[in-house]
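haha ok so turns out i had the wrong file open the whole time. this is the CORRECT one, sorry everyone. sequence first:
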Amino acid sequence: MQSILRQLGWRSPAQYVLRRSRYSLCSRAYSGAPFVPPAQLAEQPRVKLTIDADGVPNWHGATMEDVNAVISDDAMKEILLDPDVRGKGKLAPESPSFYTGRAPYYDTMTSLQMALGQIRATLKTLQLLPLPPFARASLLPMPPLWKNLEEMSSEVGMKLNTTRYRRLLVVLNELHECLRIATTAGHTELADMIEQVVAMFERGESQKEEYMSRGKRTIAELDEFGRSYTLGRRKTSSARVWIIPRITSNVKPVDVPTTTILVNNLPLSQYFPKVVDRERVVYPLKVAGVLGKFNVFTIARGGGSTGQTGAIAHGIAKGLLAHDQELLTVLRKANLIKRDPRVVERKKTGLAKARKRYTWVKR
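then structure:
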């Protein structure tokens, strides 16, 4: 290739420096072409090639025989003579991100970001953005279930790594947030449009149902006598709780009904003499508004008074949920359905207690 270009008159910067110098012998010694006398040089065809601004080669009157005499490589002739082969007339890439090497991924991100911008502009026009915190907290719960890394790679059209997958999920989560806002506000047309975009990256309905039912809490059932049996835990304590509905007669009672609570065959006031402990036990009944409607019998084992009262309250809340499932929202907001995971931290070797250290003495 260099010999062909050298025949066309191309010189390197070093050759230009040597050509301007007075040492012609050094210039001849550096040149790779053999020395040709001036008389013979006039007999050889002189071929001059320039490229116009449009990329069209100009041979300055040289014929094809002159080009064949200078250039013997057929591939080089095709490159120099055919402008289409050299790049003129070549179609532009289909994607603006073609030269990034990851055109499918960046095209998908660009289209999603453009759709997100248009949707946000529409929500701002409808006075739905920005939302105050209390309005955002009241949005309909619509947890998304996106495709995993392998499924998302096949959807995009190229293999994704973890970083690009997370960046894609950030945009999809923002689109899903706009979907929740549009659905809660009642704009069905906008919600359907967002749903069409988001549905391409979500899992199927069967996988959604399986995923949603995976962490669903099982509710205790009533036995043939209408009793519920549940188990509550707190710290190292555990409590087995039976809740029985009160049987009232047709006669109007004179006294206000009360709930009988027995802990290890002892009345509540006798087993827990402190008012704080008793209030902690009856707190689920007060929150649900069923104080006086049920009788409670429980067996508590392990731990101290705080752990046992927490375990009994946990069991009572689960038992009330078995009798009336509509109490789920109330009991959940009161943090009574989920077990309190806090336990005492263990003592560490070399420390006085779990985190307390001994006094450091210099001498």
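The beta strands are 50-51, 57-58, 228-234, 237-245, 261-263, 266-267, 294-301.
again sry for the mixup
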